[in-house]
Specification:
By secondary structure, the protein is an alpha+beta fold. It folds into 2 domains: 152 residues, Up-down Bundle (Four Helix Bundle (Hemerythrin (Met), subunit A)), CATH 1.20.120; 234 residues, paralog of FGE (formylglycine-generating enzyme) (Alpha-Beta Complex). The protein has 10 helices and 12 strands. The strands form 4 sheets. Strands 10-9-8-11 form a 4-stranded mixed sheet. Strands 1-4-12 form a 3-stranded antiparallel sheet, with helices on one face. Helix 1 runs antiparallel to helix 5 and helix 3 runs parallel beside helix 5.
Length: 406
């Protein structure tokens, strides 16, 4: 396989520049703070995505390789045990040094070295695939940067805005519901699921395999804030009958009565929601966001429905581009919870070496989300993409689409 060096370098530059653009509205103080153990500072994201290219591309292939800084191998390793020691994830916000300026120098250094290396490795399909994996990995972190920035700013009592509606990367692109909810029925049967064609896919999307689906129906669009408000007003957060036992215990322990980022000044005023543009009125037609699996499942039960399986969702999404079912908001709005536990497909095998740790070792105690969100980089989504988070995760742009048996 031979890849055009101009094309690959242009794509590399585009992806890397977008990370810098996401960080640009932030101060150095913004970039260093960590709001919770599940989130990471923007500075760490910028460094870790650079560490990936230095560790997995430059180190084995660059003549006379020398690390930019030996300590970075530990500081910016995320979870690759095969690489060596890691700085504890909950303590990433304590890394006041290196400074943001040094991390930016690190990025520039690695970018320049990789540009020099490209012509010598483009004939090697394995190296090109590794560079592509690094770019897809960085796009994942670009989405995490936005979700982590939002969570960080939401913890500030003055509710500062990341940017205005003309400069934001994410939320202004959300499309509101334009029609009442409807149902799209599908026959099911024996269907093929998983990546099996050309183009990039993560290892957890393969192998393609056949499964049986009973007839089912999906809601034509996502659940809206107005519909969720009805659930809140009906006492949905106070009625254990709608909740899984573990979800109810979690809700009680956390004292939750509404989605993440919702606020009601004075306790009886109009609902507001924190966005990347600051506090905004809750708009009834907009999709509800930042739900845990437990909340999504409870709402579905309250509504007399259920969450779709990931196979149902993918089957419907595969039909939609060919003029199939009238499903809105499949991509680019909110990640959609499914009832499917995150597990390996039949025949899955992790890759050799540290890169094989990318997805397989996380296949426990998590649920699959499908689609993509307003924070997902353009071109990064596809119908076979499998996102996954624990049932309690709320800070991602996660919503829900209802399903039911036909």
């Amino acid at each position: 396989m031979t890849t055009n060096p101009v094309d690959l370098h242009a794509r590399y530059t585009t992806v890397r520049n977008r990370s810098r653009a996401i960080a640009a509205p932030l101060s150095a103080e913004d970039c260093a703070a960590q709001s919770m153990p599940d989130a990471s500072p923007t500075k760490w994201h910028l460094a870790h995505t650079t560490w990936f290219f230095e560790t997995f591309v430059l180190e084995p292939h660059e003549p006379g390789f020398a690390p930019f800084h030996p300590a970075f191998r530990v500081l910016f390793n995320s979870y690759y045990n095969g690489v060596g020691a890691k700085h504890p994830r909950p303590q990433r916000g304590l890394l006041t040094r290196p400074a943001l300026s040094e991390v930016q120098d690190y990025r520039a250094n690695v970018d320049a070295r990789l540009a020099r290396l490209l012509p010598a490795v483009l004939h090697d399909s394995a190296v090109c695939a590794l560079i592509e994996l690094g770019l897809q990995h960085e796009q994942q972190h670009q989405e995490l940067m936005l979700t982590d920035i939002k969570h960080l700013l939401s913890c500030n009592p003055i509710f500062p805005a990341y940017g205005d509606a003309t400069t934001l990367v994410g939320e202004p692109a959300i499309t509101p519901a334009t029609a009442p909810p409807g149902w799209v029925s599908l026959e099911g049967g024996l269907v093929d699921i998983g990546h099996g064609g050309t183009g990039f896919a993560f290892d957890n999307e393969s192998p393609r395999h056949r499964c049986y689906l009973a007839p089912y129906a999906l809601a034509s669009r996502l659940v809206t804030c107005g519909e969720w408000l009805a659930f809140v007003q009906a006492g949905g957060y106070q009625q254990p009958a709608h909740w899984l036992a573990e979800g109810w215990d979690w809700r009680v322990a956390q004292g939750l009565e509404h989605p993440l980022y919702w606020h009601r000044p004075g306790g009886d005023g109009p609902w507001q929601v924190f966005t990347l543009a600051g506090l905004q009125p809750v708009q009834a037609a907009m999709p509800v966001l930042h739900l845990s699996y437990y909340e999504a499942d409870a709402y579905a039960r309250w509504a007399g429905a259920r969450l779709p399986t990931e196979a149902e969702w993918e089957h419907a999404a595969q039909l939609a581009p060919s003029g199939g079912p009238g499903l809105e908001q499949l991509f680019g709005t909110a990640w959609q919870w499914t009832q499917s536990s995150y597990a390996a497909y039949p025949g899955f095998r992790a890759a050799e070496g540290a890169v094989g740790e990318y997805n397989g070792k996380f296949m426990v105690n998590q649920y699959v989300l499908r689609g993509s969100s307003c924070a997902t980089p353009p071109g990064h989504a596809r119908s076979t993409y499998r996102n996954f988070f624990p049932a309690t995760a709320r800070w991602q742009y996660s919503g829900l689409r209802l399903a039911r048996d036909a």
